[in-house]
Amino acid sequence: MTSNSPLLSWILSNETPFQSPNRLTSLYSDFTASRASNPDGYAANVAAWRTALQHAYRAGVAAQSGDTSNNTFVIRTGPTLAAALEKHDIGSPGALGAVQEDSLAQKHWYRREDFLQRKQSVYWKPWMGVAIPSAEDVFYSLMIRVGLAEDKRLTREGEFVILRNVEDASDKVLSRIAKQGSSPTQLVHSLETFIATFKDILADDGEADRELSMPEISILLAHLYRDKRAIDMYYSEKTRTTTVKFAKTPGTPDPIEESDDTIAHLRKLLLDLEQQTSTLQKRIEECDKTAREALRSGSGDGQRKKAMAALRTKKLANETLAKREASQAQIERVLTGIEEAAGQKDMVKAMEMSASVLEGLNKEVGGVDKVQEIMDRVADGIADVEDVNKALSEPGVNNVDENEVDEELESMMKDMEPREQAGKDGRTDLPSVPSTEPSSKEETDKNIEETRRKVGNMAI
């Protein structure tokens, strides 16, 4: 029994739609005709195939199945892909052409040549200036959609960029740049340092052996430059250096200046020196190992000469390494100085802007004289308020005759003096008790009333 390819095995193990026997039969059938009769089912099958291929190429299993072009960003259609997806008990997928057509129409895939050469962003929406197809083109396209004709162009071999995989990689690049900082020496790269820095960007997912190929680097740069507007690029004839400058804010890249070209050139030289020092260190280790092995092999003249030759080479390599390391340290000091100068430039610029803001605010205020005038007016206003409060707190106009009040007070005091004296002696003048029995009820009532009157007067 023939085993499945690594590509198909990965899809069957990781993609849910391909793990159901009934669904798998539908996915491998020629469901092109269902575009008209069952559009939802057709769309679901196309999406399942497109997503599965995108994930598989993202995982890097395409190269294991014979597709050695670009195993992350670019899918190669044709007999090779059909053979890699062939299942021993079902056969090859019957609607790969429909998957390819729909992916192109929905802008999930782009022909590789078109993607690299196009001027407009892949996110641009053509509201105006759209070419109107001929009646023949419309009719033929309709026949293809209803399954009554086959687009021969879609079954031939071709290379197509998987946009989603490119977007994922570019997002990782921008995330790494954001973490590094926004100094010029961090935002500016030569093409060589860009490749060295980001070729392992897919290893962020834990795949340490994954590196982008040069064709993939080209696609990534095109996407960052044209679609993301995250970088600017420039080739200098003077330094023969391709400068890649990241925008501080994606969408608004700053133009490349001569200082940026210098930084890129210095970073390129530094990278070259790092590679040279690494090579020299390996050579020194190899020479040392060769000399020791020669001495261990015997003490004859031949082994001795071999050891001496290895040591001479080691000594020369050490001298060259010292020179390269000195040059490397010098370039690093220059880059550090550039970074510090750039920081000072930003600080001075910020202070200059602050000074302009302060000058504008002071101008709006009107200067010290105007402020003093305003403070005087405020003080006058406060004084007026205090005067009003003082006037409101004073007693109102008195229309009462004070002499009459004094006379009434004197009279009241004279009336109260005998009563106060009686109170002090502990005596109270009560009416005398009658010595004879009243002659009649009327007389009795009269006496009682007289007594009450006297008692009342005493209380007053």
Strand-helix topology:
Blueprint: H1 6-14, H2 21-28, H3 34-37, H4 39-59, E1 74-77, H5 79-84, H6 96-105, E2 109-111, H7 112-117, H8 135-145, E3 158-162, H9 163-180, H10 184-187, E4 188-190, H11 191-198, H12 214-227, E5 231-236, E6 241-246, H13 258-297, H14 301-365, H15 367-393, H16 402-425, H17 441-459
Antiparallel strand pairs: 1-3, 2-3, 4-6, 5-6
Helix pairs in contact: 1-4, 4-6, 9-12, 13-14
Describe the structure.
This protein has 460 residues and is mainly alpha-helical. Among the domains are: 6-160, no CATH class; 257-359, Helix Hairpins. 64% of the residues lie in helices and 6% in strands. It has 17 helices and six strands. It has helices at 6-14, 21-28, 34-37, 39-59, 79-84, 96-105, 112-117, 135-145, 163-180, 184-187, 191-198, 214-227, 258-297, 301-365, 367-393, 402-425, 441-459; strands at 74-77, 109-111, 158-162, 188-190, 231-236, 241-246. It has a three-stranded antiparallel sheet with strand order 1-3-2. Strands 4-6-5 form a three-stranded antiparallel sheet, sandwiched between helices. Helix 13 (258-297) runs antiparallel to helix 14 (301-365). The termini are far apart. Mean pLDDT is 82; it is low at 128-140, 142-149 and 151-155.
**If strands are numbered along the chain, what order do they take across the biggest sheet?**
1-3-2
Largest sheet: 3 strands, antiparallel
Oligomer: single chain
What's the helical proportion of residues? Answer: 55-70%
The tally of beta strands, per DSSP, is 6
Number of helices: 17
What is the succession of H and E elements?
HHHHEHHEHHEHHEHHEEHHHHH
Strand content: 5-15%
Unreliable stretches, pLDDT < 50, 5 or more residues? 128-140, 142-149, 151-155
Radius of gyration: 51 Å
Region (Disordered): 393-460
Keywords: Coiled coil
Biased composition (Basic and acidic residues): 411-428, 439-453
Biased composition (Acidic residues): 401-410
